[in-house]
Write a structure and sequence with these properties.
With 468 residues, the protein is of the alpha/beta class. It has twelve helices and 16 strands. Bound molecules: flavin-adenine dinucleotide.
C-alpha cells in the first residue's frame, strides 16, 4: 500500500475507495465511533469514467432510479431511508425534478458528500492508491467497477479466482439551448410526476425518421473494445457476454432487430406529440442532468460509437439536429468478483474475515444498491469488531434479496444484479395484477423493518460464516 499516513490509529478501519459504497460505509463507521482511513486514488490515479476528484461521483446517469413506492428501486430507496442512510439523505438534499425518479444535481451531491466526510473528525480521507489489501485488520474494499489493476490483482489473489471483466457504457449529454423545441416537447410519460409539468424533453420520431436513424446507427463506426479482446486473449474468465444486459450500448441493442429500440429506450408509450396530437412512432427522452437545468442526457443512449459518429448519428434525432454535446458517450471496464463461495451474507470474505467487499465490486448494480452494500458492510464491520452477531437483512427485503441473489448465484452466468421484484421470495397469496403484487412485496418488505425497529438485527441467531 502506498503512502500510509503514520498518524492513523492502528485500530482504524480501512476503507478502500471513496465512491458511493465507500463514502456510505465511512460515514456509518464514523457515526458508530470508529476511526476510518478512507483511501481514494483520485486525482493521483484516474479512472476511465470519473472526471473529478470528489467522493461519490456519479459517473453516468444522475438518477437513482424510480422513487415510486410500487417499484423495486423505490422499495430499495425506502429501505435505505429506514436505515437512515447518510447518502440517501444527501441525495434528497441534492434532488432536482425528474418526474417520479430520484435524480440529483451530480455536483451538488458529491460536494455534499465531500463536506460531510471532511467535517467528520473520525474520518481521514487519504489520497493514495491502495495496491494491496491490508492483512489482519478490518478493511472494506469498495473500489468499484473501475478498481485499479493493482488492487484488482490483489483481490484476485484473495478470492482465488480471476476477476470478471465486463463493459459498461455512458450516455451522451447535450445543452438545453441546442435542442429544437419546434420539434421536441416537454412531458413525463403518462405525466405521472406530481408537478405535471413534464420533467423530460421528448424527441418524437416518425416511422421514416426512425428507420433512417436505425440504419445510420447500426452502420456507424464503433471504438474497438481493445481491453475486452485483450482480456479474452489473456484467458480472463468472462460471463455470457461483454455487455450488461441492462446497460447495452444503443448501437448493440439496435442490432437485435429493426423494432428493438421502438420497444426499448425509444418506446413512445404514454407520450403524445403536441404537434400531431398522436403518439409518435418512437420517442427519445432527455433527462435534466444538472441543477441549473442547462444540460440533458439522452436516456438509455449509452454508446461506444466514435465521437464524430455520435455527433453525426445523434444529430439525426428530430430536435437534436444542432445538438451541442457537453459529453459524449463512452464505454468502460467493469470489474466485480464472483461472490458465491467467496462472501458470506454479511459481505465478509469467508477465508479472510477481516475483509468485507462493498458496492459494485461485490456484484450489485445501480447507485442505490451500491450504497446499500456499503451500508451493510459497514454495519457488519462494527459488529465484527465488537463481537456482536451481524445484521442480516431478511430475504423479504430488497437489500436482503440482493445479497442472496449475488452470494447465492453458483452458476457460471454471473452478472451484476439490480433491484427487482423477481429476486424476492414468492408471495403467499399473490394478487392478480402486477401493481397489486408489487404493493404486496413492498408491504411485506417494510413490515420486516417495522418488526426489527429498522435495525435488521437477527433476533436470536449467532453470526453465520457459512457460504450460502
Ligand atoms: C461507466 C459506468 C457507468 C455507470 N452508470 C451507471 C448509471 O448510470 N446508473 C447506475 O445506477 N449505475 C451505474 N454504474 C454502476 C455503478 O452504480 C456505479 O459504478 C457506482 O458508482 C458504483 O459504486 P461503487 O461505490 O461500487 O464504486 P465507485 O463509485 O466507482 O467508487 C469506487 C472508488 O474507488 C476508487 N478506487 C479504485 N481503485 C482504488 C484503489 N486501488 N485505491 C484507492 N481508491 C481506489 C475510485 O477512484 C472510486 O472513487 C456505472 C458504472 C460504470 C463503470
Amino acid at each position: 500500500m502506498k503512502q500510509i499516513d503514520p498518524v492513523i490509529p492502528s485500530t482504524a478501519v480501512t476503507v478502500i475507495g471513496a465512491g458511493l459504497a465507500g463514502s456510505e460505509a465511512s460515514l456509518i463507521l464514523a457515526e458508530a465511533g470508529l476511526d476510518v482511513c478512507l483511501y481514494e486514488m483520485r486525482p493521483l490515479v484516474r479512472t476511465e469514467a470519473h472526471r473529478t476528484d470528489r467522493p461519490a461521483e456519479l459517473v453516468c446517469s444522475n438518477s437513482f432510479g424510480s422513487d415510486l413506492p410500487d417499484r423495486a428501486s423505490g422499495l430499495l430507496k425506502e429501505e435505505l431511508r429506514r436505515l437512515n442512510s447518510p447518502l440517501i439523505r444527501i441525495a434528497e438534499k441534492s434532488r432536482i425534478p425528474a418526474g417520479a425518479a430520484l435524480a440529483v444535481d451530480r455536483e451538488r451531491f458529491s460536494e455534499n458528500v465531500a463536506a460531510l466526510l471532511s467535517r467528520h473528525p473520525r474520518i481521514k480521507l487519504i489520497r493514495a492508491e491502495v495496491g494491496e489489501i491490508p492483512a489482519g485488520r478490518p478493511v472494506i474494499v469498495a473500489a468499484g467497477p473501475l478498481a485499479s489493476p493493482a488492487l484488482a490483482a490483489s483481490l484476485a489473489k484473495l478470492t482465488g479466482k480471476d476477476n470478471l471483466f465486463f463493459f459498461d457504457a455512458i450516455a451522451p449529454v447535450v445543452t438545453l439551448e441546442s435542442i429544437d423545441f419546434g420539434k421536441a416537447f416537454r412531458a413525463s410519460r403518462y405525466e405521472r410526476d406530481e408537478s405535471g409539468a413534464g420533467d423530460y424533453i421528448n424527441c418524437p420520431f416518425s416511422k421514416a425518421e426512425y428507420e433512417s436513424f436505425i440504419e445510420a446507427l447500426t452502420g456507424a463506426e464503433r471504438i474497438p473494445l481493445k481491453s475486452f479482446e485483450e482480456a479474452i486473449n489473456a484467458g480472463v474468465r468472462v460471463g455470457r457476454g461483454p455487455f450488461f444486459e441492462g446497460c447495452l450500448p444503443i448501437e448493440i441493442l439496435a442490432l437485435r432487430g429493426p423494432d428493438a429500440l421502438a420497444f426499448g429506450p425509444l418506446r413512445p408509450v404514454g407520450l403524445t406529440d403536441p404537434q400531431t396530437g398522436k403518439r409518435p412512432w418512437a420517442c427519445l427522452q432527455l433527462r435534466r442532468d444538472n441543477q441549473l437545468g442547462d444540460a440533458y442526457n439522452l436516456v438509455g443512449f449509452q454508446t461506444n460509437l466514435k465521437y464524430p459518429e455520435q455527433k453525426r448519428v445523434f444529430r439525426m434525432i428530430p430536435g437534436l439536429e444542432n445538438a451541442e454535446f457537453v459529453r459524449y458517450g463512452e464505454m468502460h471496464r467493469n470489474t466485480f468478483i464472483a461472490a458465491h463461495g467467496t462472501l458470506n451474507l454479511q459481505l465478509q470474505m469467508i477465508r479472510y474475515p477481516n475483509v468485507f467487499i462493498a458496492g459494485q465490486l461485490a456484484g450489485v448494480e445501480g447507485y442505490a444498491g451500491n450504497i446499500a452494500f456499503g451500508h451493510v458492510a459497514a454495519r457488519n464491520v462494527i459488529r465484527y469488531i465488537s463481537g456482536q452477531a451481524p445484521i442480516d437483512p431478511p430475504q423479504e427485503t430488497m437489500i436482503g434479496a440482493l445479497i442472496r441473489a449475488i452470494v447465492g448465484n453458483d452458476s457460471d452466468d454471473i452478472q451484476p444484479v439490480k433491484a427487482n421484484f423477481g429476486i424476492l421470495p414468492p408471495l403467499e397469496n399473490p394478487k392478480r395484477s402486477k401493481k397489486e403484487r408489487a404493493a404486496q412485496y413492498v408491504e411485506r418488505a417494510l413490515r420486516r423493518y417495522d418488526l426489527s425497529g429498522s435495525r435488521l438485527e437477527p433476533e436470536s441467531r449467532q453470526a453465520e460464516n457459512d457460504p450460502v
